[in-house]
Structure formats: structure tokens, C-alpha cells
Amino acid sequence: MAIGYLPDSFGQTSQLPMILNQFDIHYSIFWRGVSERHGTDKTEFYWESDDGSRVLVQLLPLGYAIGKYLPSDQEALKKRMDNYFHVLDKGATGLTELVPNGHDQMPIQENIFDILEQLRQLYPERDFFLSKYENVFEEIEKQEHLDTLKGEFIDGKYQRVHRSIFATRQDLKAMNTRIENKVTNILEPLMSMAYSLGFRYEHGLLEVIWKLLLKNQAHDSMGACCSDKVHQEIKARYFEAEERTDRLIDFYKRKIVEASPDKKDKDKLGVFNFLPYAKERLVHARVTTRMKGIQLSNADGDVIDVKIRSITELDPGLVDRQIVHYGNYEPFFEYDIEFVHELPAMGYDILFIGEGVEQATIGQQVEEIDTPYYHISPNLNGTVNIINKLDQRSYEEVFSLDDTADDGDEYDFSPLEGEVPLSSAHQVTAETIVQEFEHAYLLTSSYSFAVPKELTKARKRSSDLIGISVKLELYVSKQSRIIKVNLSVDNQAKDHRLRLLIPTGIASEIGFASNQFGVIERPVYDDAMAYWESENWDERPDAIYPFLGHVGLSDNRHAVGILTNSSREYEIIGDTYDTIAITVLRAVGVLGKEELYRRPGRPSGIKLPTPDSQMIGKLTISLALTFTEDRTEVAYDEAEYLTTIETYNQMPYHAMKLNKSKQVTPYKHSVFSLENKKAILSTLKKAENSIELLARFYNPTKETIQLEMNGYDKFFLYSLKEKIRHSHFDGTIRPNQVVTVRV
Questions:
Q1: Which of 412, 419, 508, 740 would be a feasible disulfide site paired with 718, CB 3.0-4.6 Å?
Q2: Could you say which of 8, 41, 336, 370 is catalytic?
Q3: What is the pLDDT of residues 528-541, one digit of tens each?
């Protein structure tokens, strides 16, 4: 169907009309997320994205399965249909109403024609017939003056949207985030780079990865409201998808580097930059060689200032077992190095490794972190204080943890009434080490956070405490304002929620977060909290939201943003709504549960034990923190954080043998260069069914911007479906709009 059919998704993104339109889809059918406060009480309306794209919507006000198992008993049939017509008649703008006859795992109702005949007898004033959704839209389009709605639909008044499902089975959520980012920010651009040099773009291998991911992105799979058995299958798919991604990245880096001309007695180090502009970046790489000490130089022979952070001796069998097979036991050495280097836009630079420095520069232990951007000092309770040198603002006790009971299920977080969260800042004593290297600092803070062991049968927190081992790592480059954060926890407690807190000092009514190809503003407090119970909403509208890459708070002078490569759930909390809370994990032991504190009534799903969802064991969350003058810059920092530098070390040994490439690659290469950096690159890829390379950009700002690329006055504009839309596109991109152009 050329219809955006989303009958059971837990809410609808504001960007969906734009995405559907770019696939030549102008109709949408969905169920969850809409209420009158969006602007209409009708079930047919137009829905617009920020860029002006729009679809005609047929809402399913009672869900996608109200016509399932229609009874043949006339009295039962009439009773059931009367309840439906009360709602359907109120919402319809014309004469057409839908009764979907089907459900999950249900065959076609064999006696449906008998049922239709009975309905005609029961309701002679109505006409009943089998139809299809395309015909429904033909009828709706005859209606004039339909309402037009904008924005996202995440209200749980009539249908549960499970606003707190975004951190269920955080291990699976984090894998999805990491693999998506790796494919779009690294693998696809790398394959495109290789394609521009004459190598094959292996669509088939990439398609397998995308299909593995897509199998995990149905709403229950992505939501992780499944049995443990299903989650095991989901995890296996992610493992395969990531392994395929990593090996394909290695393969293409190797093909490019090994196809460049060799230099006598020199190994190579290819350094890849997938940002669409040239930039001096801090490179952290590992070089394996038998050389006793190394020196790095560029193709012209200029020596690069390299610092060796550590040296590890390796068994030659780990490099290539054939070496040992022929009796050569001479060890290899792995050099952990860092250096600052100017890298070409969407390109690479091949450097050369020769004999050189033997001594490793061990990180010097210091008391505090001091860079051109920040002064960071650790606290005894495992948090840090940060002074932003650009405006001298101070942020106290950043990165504390809070812990609350979670009496919920895999669909929803459910606190205990009146519970005050436990704070790590009030109880722990941490062991903190700060190391300074030539170009960066590493802060490591370790402690044990004691929390109640579980919930009792009386739905109270146990008096028995159990320790959660916590390790916080901050990697702070002297060249960047992005503070990289890894938080590792070894969870041993059940029935609880753990969150990481980032106080910003910005008292707020509105927060901002990235969504599909854009940025959305949301209230920090949903005003429906005041009346959801009196209106009998299906669930409490807590301001717990999803985000894709960044979330932040801002005022007229500055912004604070959290960037993510793992957790995608946040809430703005605090007396003045100035603190960003990122969910680390939710630990629950049942798929569905009834009568939750913030979701009264029937259970969602089924009441099936899911012990694996208690998240017992180790979990690492990867985030970053940035402080900017303008909130738009947070989006640019997100792109830089997620677009990591890749390196490839070529030496005379490799366990996997490849034939020599016919291509000869240059030592330095750039596919294209973005001149106006206000556009964010989504990905660079080869078209599915033609020879073009396509670059996809979006505009995260509130103003119309201009796409400017070196050497381009006009562009060929493509849709997301990769159809040419315009052959003389001038590069204008409206706010929250995505464009795809030929490179």
C-alpha cells in the first residue's frame, strides 16, 4: 500500500509526513497518540511537518482490531457495534467509518459475509461492505475543510503510548543506537569513499545489516516488551549486525590503504575523517608492529608529533598464526598513540610508520582537569564540578546517580507513591584518578552505590541493600569542548530505575531534543498532569521523552547539551526544571502488569515473567556533554561526537589474505567539502539502483539555510526514495527539512 500504515506504534514523530511524502506516500493510518488538545476531535485530518509536507490521516480511534472475532449472535453483535458507533459517529467527518476485521495472529474470519448480512439487518440505515484502505481515502478526499494538525502525537488519553518504554532492556536499546550510528556515520560514507576511488559498493552486504536491524525495529521488538526468548533472538540479530558492520568497515579501510603505493621499510596508518569538512582532530590509534619504537610521517616525509600512551607486547599468533606455524616467535608490539592532525573533508590521509621513539609517555597523575575550554575538579562523592571558561559559569555535582523503585513492567516505569529518590551524591565515597596525557585527560571515578535489593510482595522496597558497582570515565580532549562520558554499572538489584543527572543551572519551561532529521521542542512539564485523572486518561503524561542524538536546555546566552550513543530516554527534572536526567537502566521482571501507579487498569501485554529484564550484570552507557553559546551548536557537536575517526594499520602480516587491488589510491583524498557548516550530514551513500553517490543533509536550526559545497552552484535534488525531484536545486533547506543531493 502507498499508505503510511502504523496501526500500533507507541506515538508518532512530527517528522513522519515529510518522510512519507519523500517516498511518494500522501496518506497515513495510525491509532495511538492523538487527543483533542492537538486541535481536533475528528478522525480524519491533514497532518503537517515543519517543512510543509503533509499527509491525509485516517485515525483508528478504537484501534486496528475492533472488528476481530465479530460474533454471529445478533444480540451480542448489536451490543458490541453500538459501543463502537458511539465513538465512530462522533469522529467521522463524512459517511465512511472503519471497522477493521482482524487482529494479531488471527486468520481471516471465515463467516464474514454472514456477519455482514446480519449487520445490514440490524442497521438498515447503514451500508456494510468489504473494502480496502485506498477506497477509504478516496472518500475522505471528498470532504472539505478538514482540520490540519502539526507536531508529534504522544498523548495517552485514549490509547497508551508508554512514554517510559524508551529505556526498557537498555542493553538492546544501546546496541541499536550504536549500530545505527556506526552504519550511517561510518560504514556507508566509507563505502562511498571507496566507491569514488573505483572499488565496488557492496549493496548486498549492507542490505543484510539493515534487514537485521529492521527485524528488531517493529514496535514490540524496539520497545523490548517481549518474552526473554524473543529478546535473546533480538540480541543475536544485533550481535550479527554489529559484527558484519565492523568487519565490513575493516575490509574497506584495508582495501583503500593497501591500494596506495608502498614505501620501503614503512608500514602505513590510514586516518579517515567522515565529517563533511576539513578539521584538525585528535587521533587516537593503535599501531601493531615489530619495530622497537615508532615514528610517524606524512607522504611528504614531514614528521608528525606522536605521543605513545602505552606499549603492549603481543604474541605473534594473535597477529597471524602462520607466523608461529613457521617457527617465528619474535613478539609484536601494540603502540597506543595519540596525535593532532588536520584531516581532509570526507576523506583520509595515509601516514607512514617507521622506526623511532621507544619510550611511552605514561599519563601523569594530576588533581584536576584544565583545558582551554574547562576546569573540571572531582568530588569525593563521584561527581565533578565544571567551570566553563568561555562564560565562567560553574556547574556543581555533575553526573550523580539517582535511584527509585520501579514497580512497572516492560512497557512502563511505575514509581512508588511519594517516594524520594536515593542519590549517590549523598552516600558514596569514590576513588578517583585523573591522568593527563599530551592532548587529553582521563578521569576515572569508581564507587559502590547501595540500593534496596528488590521490591517485596507488598510492593515496598526491601530493607536489604545491595551494592551496584559504578565506574564513571570522562575523556576530555584539550582540542574540543565535547566531554566524552562512559558510565559502567554492574547492576545486582531488581525492580528499580537508575538515572544519570546533569544539572545545567538553566531554569526552563521548554527543552529541545533531536528527532528524525530535525530538532523538536517539548515542555518540561506536561500540563495534562493536572487533569489526566479527572479525564480518565489511559496513562499519566509524565514528561519522559525519547531523543535520537542530543537533548538540551538553553537560554538567550548559552546551552547545555547531552549527546548519546546509547540511552535515548530523558526527563527534565528539578525544582526549576534545570536538570537533565538520562535513564541508565530500568530493572523489571514482568512483561505486563495491571494497576500501575501511573497507568491504572488492565495490564499492557500479558503477565509473563521476564527475569532477563531485571538487567542483572554489567552495562555501559556512552554519552557526551557539551556547553555552547547557541543551542544549534549542540546539533553540530552531536554530529562530531558520533562521527568518529577511523584508522587502519597496514603491516606485512595479516591473518586474512586478499588479492592486490587493481586500483591505485592516492595518499590523500576528499570526496567533497561542505562550505556552509549549518547543514548536518545524515549520511553519504551510493544510490540503490544507479551509479550516483548521494549525500543527505538536514537543517537543525530555526532559520532557512543554504547548502554550500565546494565546486557546486546547483544540485540535483533527490527524494528519500532516491527519485530526482529537481535538476537545478539551489540548496535552500527549510528548518527540520531533509534533502538528498548528488555528489
A1: 740
A2: 8
A3: 999 999 999 999 99
